[in-house]
Design a protein that fits this description.
The complex is a heterodimer of chains A (422) and B (233). Chain A has 422 residues and is of the alpha+beta class. Helices cover 55% and strands 20% of the residues of chain A. Chain A starts with a helix and ends in a 5-residue tail after the last helix. Chain B has 233 residues and is of the alpha/beta class. Chain B has a six-stranded mixed beta sheet with strand order 6-7-8-3-9-10, with helices on both faces. In chain B, strands 2-1-4-5 form a four-stranded antiparallel beta sheet. In chain B, 46% of the residues are buried. Classes of the chains: A alpha+beta (422), B alpha/beta (233).
């Protein structure tokens, strides 16, 4: 214990004594950690926005579907009324319910939209007008007319681009033709109540929203649906929520599959992962530079004190204790830098909490990719676990960067060290 | 072997050969030597005669190319480094020309360094160092850092660090080389007194005539070999 205290005392005083060198090493770590925290919180914020937009336009953070629906896209592969009830009951579970922001039952089917001037293939989305506003952003994307409302029956809400291509305006009639669940061809007349624009061509040119009850009756589904979308408060609770839902569904002997957004929207998943990998490459380059700076300054500090390390050995200090001294000095610097870097990183992050990071000069107000709308202004997301990982990362860099200088300290020849002049 | 045969340090046919640009330089040649407890020995000789290298061999700071070395009758020739470190800690004291105090420690912390590593309790360490500081004339300087001490005071702290653990042997390499003559005389007086009072064995490497004059045994080295070994009364 006395030996350890001596080591700490020596290390602390050596760090203070070589103030300029310590400051140089520490500032590399402080800047590195601050940048790491800022870039991670901004990236997390951006990804959360992408995911939020993507899942709201799509099928939610978690979706309950027939196991083959994604591959076949056929309403024959629907969620039965019994499975839907099992899923809704599972969503009321005390471990799941607090995570859930909104639930939206849907019917998705391929159809042909026919008007006097045009006939186009479209994607029908049967929605519950009561549940949908809390779930999707479609109401906010309104460009004309109104969104679907409870009590609507023969109404349709379509993309502005699709309306133009169908050559229809508000109040005009559109005939929708699709295969019903029993294989027959069913027709449904609807009137245009509103139009929307998301900026995503495949959404704006293809989607036709109709009331869920209308779609169920038209397609012969009864109380069945093709998916039950679940929107959560935070995207990082998806794995837990999905795992719990799967267990509960199994317990209720339901056959429907529980998919996460990563499974249901692989393009969005790939986009987030690719952006993460880009960030990781940036972090690796950043921390290789930081590590080299630390190795350089700590090594210089060891070489500058060659005689001192020789004296320590001459006095009976073991080589490994000399090496430990170097590591402890580096870890003290890492610890102090960690605290300062954390404060600096959080301070910089806080600036962006207020106004967000505005990239509109680079990309306009928004752009679309991977089935999601990417806003030009995004806000950082603070996660304690991410901060912990960043700190652990810096600590590991500090430790690793001290190993070679520590090794060099063990290679000092005492007799030669006594001749050393700094 | 009885007590009178016990050597503080001894060598048998010790050689130290350095390689410089492919040329072998024999710094110490075939030195067989026995220094008994309580001796006050000076290794003298011109620069390059091998004094410091022999001192380093005696202190286990460097290993012999050939031959054998014992400290306090423990052979260190092929001993693992950690065991030699232990012997240096428990049985040896060093005084260097450039004092070599640790700049971040106070005078007291420097002097008690080896006691602390040996696990001596703090109170006992402080008592021993304080008493020794009083004895060698640097009482009251315990809390000063080396940078705030004169050369003579620093060397006294270095001597205190070397002798406070009552080692079998104190090795001093040119201890007076950086001191003025008055400080040098005071330091020598002090080491003679410590030798006489506590029976501490001192081995010096020097070409300081004043120090050679105080030696009770003067070993002259020429080209790495012992040229003469005179004991005085």
């Amino acid at each position: 214990m006395e030996r350890l205290r001596l080591l700490l005392r020596l290390a602390l005083r050596n760090v203070r004594r070589q103030a300029r060198r310590s400051l140089l090493t520490a500032s590399a770590m402080v800047v590195g950690l601050a940048l790491l925290i800022l870039s991670r919180t901004l990236a997390d914020g951006a990804h959360e926005q992408w995911i939020d937009s993507g899942v709201r336009l799509g099928s939610g953070h978690v979706t309950v579907q027939h196991p083959e629906f994604r591959a076949r896209r056929s309403i024959e592969r629907h969620v039965t009324a019994a499975d839907r009830e099992a899923a809704e009951s599972a969503l009321r579970d005390p471990h799941v319910a607090p995570l859930v922001r909104a639930v939206a039952p849907r019917i998705e089917a391929a159809a042909l939209a026919v008007t006097p001037g045009s006939a186009l293939p479209v994607a029908i989305i049967g929605i519950d007008p009561r549940a949908e506003p809390a779930f999707s952003e479609m109401e906010q994307r309104l460009t004309d007319g109104r969104f679907l409302e409870p009590g609507d029956r023969l109404h349709a809400f379509v993309g502005e681009a699709l309306a133009n291509r169908l050559q229809v305006e508000l109040g005009h009639r559109v005939v929708l033709t699709a295969q019903t669940v029993d294989g027959a061809i069913g027709e449904q007349l609807v009137r245009l109540t509103g139009t929307f624009r998301t900026g995503i061509p495949e959404v704006d040119e293809r989607l036709v929203f109709v009331p869920l009850a209308t779609a169920q009756e038209w397609l012969g589904l009864g109380d069945a649906i093709t998916s039950l979308g679940v929107l959560l408060d935070e995207s990082w609770s998806v794995p837990n929520a999905a795992r719990r839902l799967r267990t509960l569904m199994r317990e209720r002997e339901a056959t429907a599959a529980v998919l996460t957004w990563r499974e249901a929207m692989p393009e969005l998943d790939a986009a987030v992962r690719m952006d993460d990998y880009g960030d990781y490459v940036f972090h690796i380059i950043l921390f290789v530079i930081v590590a080299l700076a630390i190795v350089n300054t700590v090594l210089m500090s060891v070489l500058y004190r060659t005689r001192e390390f020789g004296v320590l050995q001459a006095l009976g200090v073991r080589k490994r204790d000399g090496a430990a001294l170097v590591v402890v000095e580096s870890m003290i610097l890492t610890g102090v830098s960690g605290v300062v870097g954390l404060v600096l990183g959080l301070g910089a992050t806080w600036l962006f909490f207020r106004n967000g990071l505005d990239l509109s000069s680079l990309m306009g107000d928004q752009m679309t990719a991977a089935g999601t709308v990417i806003e030009a202004v995004f806000y950082p997301r603070f996660r304690l676990a991410q901060i912990g990982v960043s700190l652990a990362f810096v600590a590991a860099i500090g430790l690793l960067a001290s190993l070679y200088p520590a090794y060099r300290a063990t290679r000092i020849d005492i007799a030669e060290a006594m001749k050393f002049e700094a | 072997m009885n007590d009178t045969d016990q050597a503080a340090v001894r060598t048998e046919g010790a050689w130290k050969v350095f390689e410089h640009d492919g040329i072998a330089v024999e710094a110490v040649r075939d030195v067989t030597l026995r220094i008994g407890p309580g001796e006050f020995v000076v290794l003298a000789g011109p620069s390059g005669s091998g004094k410091t290298t022999l001192l380093n061999l005696l202190g286990g700071l460097t290993r012999p190319t050939r031959g054998r070395i014992w400290i306090d009758e423990v052979e260190i020739t092929d001993l693992p480094e950690r065991k030699i470190a232990r012997i240096r800690l428990e049985r040896l004291g060093f005084v260097f020309q450039a004092y070599n105090l640790l700049p971040v420690l106070t005078a007291l912390e420097n002097a008690e360094f080896s006691l602390l590593l040996r696990g001596v309790p703090a109170e006992e360490r402080q008592q021993r160092v304080t008493a020794l500081f009083e004895r060698i004339g640097i009482g009251g300087l315990e809390d000063r850092r080396p940078g705030k001490l004169s050369g003579g005071q620093q060397q006294r702290v270095a001597v205190a660090r070397a002798v406070v653990g009552q080692p079998a042997l104190v090795l001093a390499d040119e201890p007076t080389a950086n001191l003025d003559s008055a400080s040098s005389t005071e330091l020598l007086d002090m080491m003679v007194e410590l030798n006489e009072e506590f029976g501490t064995t001192f081995v010096f490497a020097t070409h300081d005539a004043a120090l050679m004059a105080r030696a009770r045994r003067l070993i002259r080295l020429v080209d790495g070999a012992i040229a003469s070994d005179d004991t005085r009364r």
